[in-house]
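Title: Comparing notes on inverse folding

I've been comparing how different people in this forum approach sequence design from structure. To keep things fair, I'm posting one structure and asking everyone to reply with a full sequence. Here's the target:
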């Protein structure tokens, strides 16, 4: 991220200023014996200033990474996978009940698959909506970039919704769950038409699958709507910034003292520690910020198109296997 490099440059300038100030201050002070009296312990004692803070920062940032990784995993397994598995179960039942290739059977199977894919995309859009609330031109550009400018229209253009379905869905808010309701209603229609072998039991099974799909959607949205406590995140970010400032000052003082004492190896070692610490700590904070919403469009986010392609491929294979 550009900010990480800008921050590193600013801290480096601060460290260089402190190093120059320390060196010239010692040059103007005592000379001769005092220069020789500076020992490794004197130089090493400066690094002890930030050692305790380093341990604390490592502990807190490590805990934050653990919490965020667990949340990422839970969103995929407890939320999205539950929805995905429910849609797959519905398609599996349809494949068994309608193995033929008649127009009515194909229409029912294709409709359920279309709606399942549409519901997944709508779930992604609802999750992205949580991070796209800026007003004005910037907000419009963000919505266009993330696919939120015309959500229902995009589904119609992809062939996942008909024009009539898109018109019915447009004014709704919980769109991903509304499409699951359509799937459940379709099975009620099939029962009334007498197309299921055991209407009462089969309808209950299909309804249970639809409820599981809806539960997966709701769990995903609940986890996305539950953010880390702001005061905790802000406090951690403040501690990280204070730590980096202290590290820059200590590094500058160590470099100045080492150059004055004629032991540049200490200056090199402390500089390397400073550079690595700045890059790694800020890098972890940036990764945490990006992974907060894995339903976005960044390279580290869940791949919506890949997931849709895999779901469609699995369901199509089930349909083909039943009709073979």
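Reply #1:
Here's my take.
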């Amino acid at each position: 991220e550009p900010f990480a490099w800008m921050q590193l440059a600013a801290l480096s300038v601060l460290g260089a200023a402190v190093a120059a100030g320390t060196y010239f201050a010692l040059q103007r002070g005592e000379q001769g014996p005092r220069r020789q009296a500076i020992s490794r312990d004197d130089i090493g004692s400066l690094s002890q200033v930030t050692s305790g803070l380093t341990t604390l920062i490592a502990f807190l940032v490590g805990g934050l990474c653990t919490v965020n990784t667990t949340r990422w995993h839970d969103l995929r397994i407890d939320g999205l996978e539950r929805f995905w598995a429910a849609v797959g179960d519905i398609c599996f039942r349809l494949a068994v009940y309608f193995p033929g290739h008649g127009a009515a059977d194909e229409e029912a199977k294709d409709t359920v698959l279309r709606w399942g894919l549409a519901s997944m995309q709508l779930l992604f859009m609802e999750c992205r909506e949580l991070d796209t609330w800026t007003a004005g031109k910037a907000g419009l550009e963000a919505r266009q970039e993330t696919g939120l400018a015309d959500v229902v229209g995009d589904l119609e253009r992809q062939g996942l919704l008909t024009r009539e379905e898109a018109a019915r869905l447009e004014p709704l808010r919980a769109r991903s769950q509304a499409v699951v309701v359509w799937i459940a209603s379709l099975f009620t229609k099939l029962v009334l038409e007498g197309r299921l072998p055991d209407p009462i039991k089969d309808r209950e099974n299909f309804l249970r699958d639809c409820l599981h799909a809806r539960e997966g959607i709701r769990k995903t949205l609940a986890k996305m709507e539950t953010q880390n406590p702001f005061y905790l995140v802000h406090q951690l970010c403040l501690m990280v910034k204070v730590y980096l400032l202290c590290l820059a000052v200590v590094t500058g003082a160590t470099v100045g003292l080492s150059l004055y004492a004629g032991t540049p190896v200490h200056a090199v070692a402390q500089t390397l520690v400073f550079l690595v610490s700045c890059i790694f700590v800020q890098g972890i904070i940036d990764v945490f910020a990006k992974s907060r919403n894995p339903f976005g469009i960044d390279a580290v986010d869940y791949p919506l198109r890949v997931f849709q392609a895999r779901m469609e491929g699995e369901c199509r294979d089930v349909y083909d296997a039943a009709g073979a």
